[in-house]
Amino acid sequence: MKLTVAFLTAILVPVGLMAGWYLWGQFAIFKPDDPYIWIRTGHFLILCALISAAFVLALGIPAYLLLRWRNAVRWWSTIASGFVLGAAPIAIFTWPLQYPKGASASFDGIATLVNGTPTFAGWLQYLESVAFFGACGAASATAFWLVARRPNHSFKADGSAAA
Known about the structure:
Layout: H1 2-29, H2 36-69, H3 75-93, E1 105-107, E2 110-114, E3 117-118, H4 120-148
Antiparallel strand pairs: 1-2, 2-3
Helix pairs in contact: 1-2, 1-4, 2-3, 3-4
């Protein structure tokens, strides 16, 4: 039961982080009395929950089972695995060297891609996004570790029920 709660917590922590980050941006862009802020945030929250659940089910559970099989479930291995599992898919799918010659892009007026080649600003933007998703994975893994490793005070050391 404790592992189930730990995996559910691992799903919900990045959802909360991403939804909070998104809501912060909504209040920065739109007027606070805009009723659609909450609708957009609710839709974003659902999307984040689906993606986070997919990550935990497809990557997190197998990683945990692998660590457990290797007898390597430690706080540092769990958090490092969470970072890698959060960062790797984004790093692969947003790899900046996949664009054809002639493609260009900019962000806030700063060129990030010129003639199919990422600029220094483009590489920084890429690394920032990979680090952000890695941090979400590490936060998820930390939450998992804290819940899964929480001592159970309902039983004494000899196995009898505590009063």
